[in-house]
Amino acid sequence: MEITLASLPNELLLQICRSLASSTDLSNFRLVCRLFGEIGLPVLGKRVTFALLPESINRLRDISSDPFFRRHTSTIVCLMNVFYPYSNFRTWKHSMTRPLILGHYRPEIAGLSEDDWTESMLHYNALLDAQDEAFKAVGTSQDIQIACRRFINLQNLVIQDARGFRPDHLRSNQAYRFLRQRHGTLAQCSVLPVYDFSAFPHKIALPGAYLLSSLLGATTESQLKTLQVDALALEVFEEEDEVHSQIRKSTRNLHMLKLCILAGSEDVEKERADRILSQNRLKNLLCSAPHLEKLEVQIKGAFFGTGIYYAHSAYILPREYTWHQIRRLRFSQVEFLTSGFLDFLGFHGHTLEDFGLRDCAIVGPPPIQGLQPQRCFWSDILIPLTTTYSLETLSLSGWFTVPSFFEQDQNQETRTLRAMNMEHDRVKDVTLCVGEVIEMVVCSKAFSSFLQGEVGRRNGLAMDTDRSVIEGLAVEIKEGIIRDLMDREPVRPSESVPEAVPTRYSSYLNLFTQLESGSL
After folding, report:
1. HSE-up (13 A, CA, CB side) for residue 486
2. What is the pLDDT of residues 61-82, one digit of tens each?
3. Average pLDDT, stretch 165-177?
């Protein structure tokens, strides 16, 4: 009797996959095993990945009909691929011929005739038609919802922006395969969902929201443990519609929530974005998840005339003890009120292990009439993190700003933004960027032990008899390092970043890095 792969039980196929020696063998095996075609390699048999194309949605439906996957699948990942609908052939060709890196030659498109380009354009239009069909199906068809409802142990939903991913999730589309083979990449044609409202109908411009609504409709309120959405339009929080209601119900038992909220578009201005967030629907959504252990909120957007958009922390952070188990917090493009954030830390700091900020701003309290505005600095937040709480990880990256001030030029008054770039500024005599040094000062137990020992040695103090004095001096040095690095003179973002940032305590940092690297 002839035995084929198709005749083997899925449990046995799963064991075969786990025993394969290399990723190449596994990739070849997946090509001949249809059911395993959409299963992610790291968690084979537990994660199903599909793209917003009809062929991939059909594959999702097929997989959900299989008893093995209905029982074992715990994670569904949707990769949102959005290809730009160019208005004419010339614009599309210009985009396709533009190098991803300036000056980079692309041999795969050299020598293509006009007939070749015309043929490619026909395939690109076919890809757009398939994309349009899938987007419309998200809003009108229940195929995705019915398929997801079959996975009885579904616990994790991930909706990712597919730009930058390997193209495996699109290989089922014939037009895409043709274009990949001829042109090598379509990265220039991929756009972030939501941003370009002029190019897409309004509903299709929000695939993150409507896809999320469809997926959440397939789950019970207590089922989900993890929810990640990479492209969620700010308009979702404008009113209490079905999408917002479903999201809020799904958060009640979440352990991990990651939201990337897109605030910049032709339809949204800064004042409107502030007004939407001030209604506190986003905040209420986050506060309805009391079991959160990991939370990440990214705001993306910039507006003409005002630059990067910062969401005020009062529209995000709870004012009372809400997240009893929170261990990891990450924020991007959020503006923190110093006193409000310190109050938040007072409630949640004792469980916090991992804290990260990227491209954030800080503001002080409103000025009192007749008095100068109270100055505020990032050290106002980072020093309490050093002296009061025991973080294991502190991540600071991107640009950090403090309130703008006015500087008198020769002829006119200009508005200068205080900002520093955590990723590139170097500390004097130390090959570490500012963010790395701050993390070391706040979190590193090795640095704390070194600093106390070095302080005792330099001051002739003994740990067994002068512990409290040594610890106090070490804390003062930590606070001084943070103030030197975070409260320095302003730089203009348009200027070149300084090569070195001075600090009074470079000798401690330099000696510690030498000891860590073994150069001493």
Report:
1. 26
2. 888 888 878 888 888 888 887 8
3. 75
Q: What is the CA radius of gyration of the chain?
A: 27
Evaluated on CA atoms 168, 169, 175, 180, the torsion sign reads: negative
Query: For 372-420, how does the pLDDT look when each residue is reduced to its tens digit (9 = 90+)?
Result: 667 788 999 999 988 888 899 999 998 888 876 544 333 433 344 567 7
At 78 the three-state DSSP class reads strand
User: In 224-273, at which residue ranges do the beta strands (DSSP E only) sit?
Assistant: 226-233, 256-262
Distance CA 450, CA 432 (A): 17
Q: Is residue 388 a contact partner of residue 352, using CB atoms and an 8 Å limit?
A: no
β-bridge mates for residue 229, sequence order: 159, 259
Other C-beta atoms closer than 10 Å to the C-beta of 290 total 16
From residue 281, alpha-carbon distances to 69, 87, 243, 317, 510 in Å are 36, 37, 12, 12, 48
Measured over the CA atoms of residue 211, residue 213, residue 215 and residue 218, the dihedral's sign is negative
Distance CA 324, CA 322 (A): 6
Helices (DSSP H) in 366-413: which residue ranges?
A: 379-387
What is the distance between the alpha carbons of residues 192 and 13, in angstroms, rounded to a whole number?
A: 37
In this prediction, residue 509 carries a pLDDT of: 93
CB 35 within 8 A of CB 59: no
Q: 170, 333, 176, 173: which is closest to 259 by C-alpha?
A: 333
Rounded alpha-carbon distances, angstroms, from residue 387 to 24, 222, 263, 487:
51, 38, 35, 18
Per DSSP, the residues of 46-60 read TEEEEESSHHHHHHH
Q: Would you state the pLDDT for residue 13?
A: 65
Beta carbons within 10 angstroms of residue 153's beta carbon: 12
